[in-house]
């Protein structure tokens, strides 16, 4: 298994968005600890495979975070980060998809699976809409979910997800103070070194996604430098 | 922490039901590995405390399985077995009660907490009605839930719960064949040595409850002998 617990910086790539070949080289050599292939909409085996082919020549670890059992890839990847959304009333995203996946696929390589407890906090994000996550909750509710994830379920990863917008550092700080077992991920709206540094104070690992597409690889390199 | 992983036989006592003093002595000296205070209806701190007082003079380990955050006792017990029901559409019983509990109670002793993944299979049971569990599911669905519990969530306990009726040994056998990490509990309808032996072939631990009230301590002793 890869040494994912010591990653400080993950670059999240969305197979549904277009990267230029030069960007891919810049990303892969930026110092980011891993490339995570992820996304909520329109993930298919085809576009995941295409992206994997584009990045595989660089040595940086590549992992997949499937949004759905139909979007799980197994070949040529070093990890399978499988989310469970805790702050949703829809059981589908907590355990339903997982049960369906296991039922359909009998030879899952569990050694590469890293379960993630998602707490989704941007109501305008695709992931919030798809999962019907209850995003407008006070900090003590977020902390309670994170504590349940850390102590009761013992999730390897607790993931504070503001996908598409920059989150509230006070919430990430409050969560960081109760973590005992889980690695704390923060993702959402990090598009410069300052924001990377701010969230990187509290999160063990920051995840940078849209900045790659919106601002280019140069912004990504700044976020790597800020946390390393 | 108590050596709960090696228990073969648990006696589940319901604080809502009446035991005669003689029964309590017979139960506590039956060879059962632990007494579990549990129940779905009308559990209060008062009746839990009363039961605890009745059994505490015997050395057998006593654990509590709260049906609700309001029914959690902390003093004088060796373990807190906290269920999460996987086969329900109602998020309350998967993670909701847990989050509420953590929010209200800040000094939980996590060292004594043993998380249990419940798969509830008797539609007529109180636990099925309260949790709205989807009980009429084929064996492959049960096995898939159990696999998710064992491999993805890594629950210490997977609990096949037929509360109030004797279950299908083929289902328990099928689940036992996929368990890799979790300890497999079976509970429901065990009221004699034969049934204890049958389910005890597949489950690591059998849980005997109603027999104590319906048939008395003698039936309980038979179930202990059958699995030891």
Automatic annotation (TrEMBL), chains A, B:
<keyword id="KW-0460">Magnesium</keyword>
<dbReference type="GO" id="GO:0046474">
    <property type="term" value="P:glycerophospholipid biosynthetic process"/>
</dbReference>
<dbReference type="GO" id="GO:0005737">
    <property type="term" value="C:cytoplasm"/>
</dbReference>
<dbReference type="GO" id="GO:0000287">
    <property type="term" value="F:magnesium ion binding"/>
</dbReference>
<keyword id="KW-0963">Cytoplasm</keyword>
<protein>
    <recommendedName>
        <fullName>Geranylgeranylglyceryl phosphate synthase</fullName>
        <ecNumber>2.5.1.41</ecNumber>
    </recommendedName>
</protein>
<keyword id="KW-0479">Metal-binding</keyword>
<keyword id="KW-1208">Phospholipid metabolism</keyword>
<dbReference type="InterPro" id="IPR039074">
    <property type="entry name" value="GGGP/HepGP_synthase_I"/>
</dbReference>
<keyword id="KW-0444">Lipid biosynthesis</keyword>
<feature type="binding site">
    <location>
        <begin position="209"/>
        <end position="210"/>
    </location>
    <ligand>
        <name>sn-glycerol 1-phosphate</name>
    </ligand>
</feature>
<feature type="binding site">
    <location>
        <begin position="159"/>
        <end position="164"/>
    </location>
    <ligand>
        <name>sn-glycerol 1-phosphate</name>
    </ligand>
</feature>
<comment type="similarity">
    <text>Belongs to the GGGP/HepGP synthase family. Group I subfamily.</text>
</comment>
<dbReference type="InterPro" id="IPR038597">
    <property type="entry name" value="GGGP/HepGP_synthase_sf"/>
</dbReference>
<comment type="function">
    <text>Prenyltransferase that catalyzes the transfer of the geranylgeranyl moiety of geranylgeranyl diphosphate (GGPP) to the C3 hydroxyl of sn-glycerol-1-phosphate (G1P). This reaction is the first ether-bond-formation step in the biosynthesis of archaeal membrane lipids.</text>
</comment>
<dbReference type="GO" id="GO:0120536">
    <property type="term" value="F:heptaprenylglyceryl phosphate synthase activity"/>
</dbReference>
<comment type="pathway">
    <text>Membrane lipid metabolism; glycerophospholipid metabolism.</text>
</comment>
<feature type="binding site">
    <location>
        <position position="14"/>
    </location>
    <ligand>
        <name>Mg(2+)</name>
    </ligand>
</feature>
<keyword id="KW-0443">Lipid metabolism</keyword>
<dbReference type="InterPro" id="IPR008205">
    <property type="entry name" value="GGGP_HepGP_synthase"/>
</dbReference>
<dbReference type="InterPro" id="IPR026438">
    <property type="entry name" value="GGGP_synthase_archaea"/>
</dbReference>
<keyword id="KW-0594">Phospholipid biosynthesis</keyword>
<dbReference type="GO" id="GO:0047294">
    <property type="term" value="F:phosphoglycerol geranylgeranyltransferase activity"/>
</dbReference>
<feature type="binding site">
    <location>
        <position position="40"/>
    </location>
    <ligand>
        <name>Mg(2+)</name>
    </ligand>
</feature>
<feature type="binding site">
    <location>
        <position position="189"/>
    </location>
    <ligand>
        <name>sn-glycerol 1-phosphate</name>
    </ligand>
</feature>
<feature type="binding site">
    <location>
        <position position="12"/>
    </location>
    <ligand>
        <name>sn-glycerol 1-phosphate</name>
    </ligand>
</feature>
<keyword id="KW-0808">Transferase</keyword>
<dbReference type="Pfam" id="PF01884">
    <property type="entry name" value="PcrB"/>
</dbReference>
């Amino acid at each position: 298994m890869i040494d994912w617990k010591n990653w400080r910086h993950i670059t999240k790539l969305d197979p549904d968005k277009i990267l230029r070949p030069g960007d891919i080289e810049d990303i892969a050599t930026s110092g980011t600890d891993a490339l995570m292939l992820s996304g909520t909409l329109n993930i298919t085996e085809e576009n995941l495979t295409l992206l994997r082919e584009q990045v595989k020549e660089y040595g940086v670890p590549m992992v997949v975070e499937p949004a759905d059992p139909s979007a799980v890839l197994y070949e040529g990847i070093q990890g399978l980060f499988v989310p469970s959304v805790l702050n949703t009333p829809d059981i589908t995203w907590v355990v339903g998809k997982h049960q369906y996946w296991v039922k359909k696929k009998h030879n899952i390589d569990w050694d590469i699976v890293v379960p993630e407890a998602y707490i989704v906090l941007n109501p305008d994000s695709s992931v919030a809409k798809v999962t019907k996550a209850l995003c407008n909750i006070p900090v003590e509710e977020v902390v309670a979910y994170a504590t349940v994830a850390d102590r009761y379920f013992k999730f390897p990863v607790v993931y504070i997800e503001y996908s598409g917008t920059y989150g509230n550092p006070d919430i990430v700080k409050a969560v960081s103070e109760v973590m005992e077992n889980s690695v704390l991920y923060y993702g959402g709206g990090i598009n410069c070194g300052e924001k990377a540094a701010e969230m990187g104070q509290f999160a063990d690992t920051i995840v940078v996604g849209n900045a790659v597409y919106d601002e280019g690889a140069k912004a990504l390199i700044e976020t790597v430098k800020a946390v390393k």
